[in-house]
Design goal:
single chain; Orc1-like AAA ATPase domain-containing protein; mainly alpha; 110 residues; P-loop_NTPase; AAA_16
């Protein structure tokens, strides 16, 4: 997750947070890897929703990966940041974005 901070003015968005929590914590669903795409116009609060959700669940999950899919270069940068900041990659010398994707794809839960 990028080094961004939840705004002290964050309010509302309970509907979106509830949907995220239900999606990731629903015991009726397969407990394997879960991915969620949150999209919309710039400036409507997507980042703040994600940061609030991360804050609420960070003690319940082992990994939270944030991939900025704005462009091919931001996706690559996101994968490189995951490799830099995650012990899963501590033994590898600068893994490529593809190698990071391969490791994530083999994980049972995200």
């Amino acid at each position: 997750v990028p080094q961004r901070y939840l705004s002290s003015l964050f309010t509302g968005r309970e509907e979106y947070l509830a949907k995220l929590k239900n999606y990731f914590n629903n015991p009726g669903r397969n407990m394997g890897r879960r991915l969620y795409l949150l999209y919309g116009l710039g400036g409507i609060g997507k980042t703040q929703i994600c940061l609030k959700f991360k804050e609420e669940v960070e003690n319940e999950v082992e990994y939270v990966f944030w991939i900025d899919a704005s462009s091919e270069s931001t996706i690559t940068s996101s994968f490189k940041a995951i490799a830099r900041n995650n012990p899963l990659f501590s033994g590898e010398e600068k893994p490529s974005a593809y190698q990071v994707l391969q490791v994530i794809s083999r994980m049972k839960q995200i």
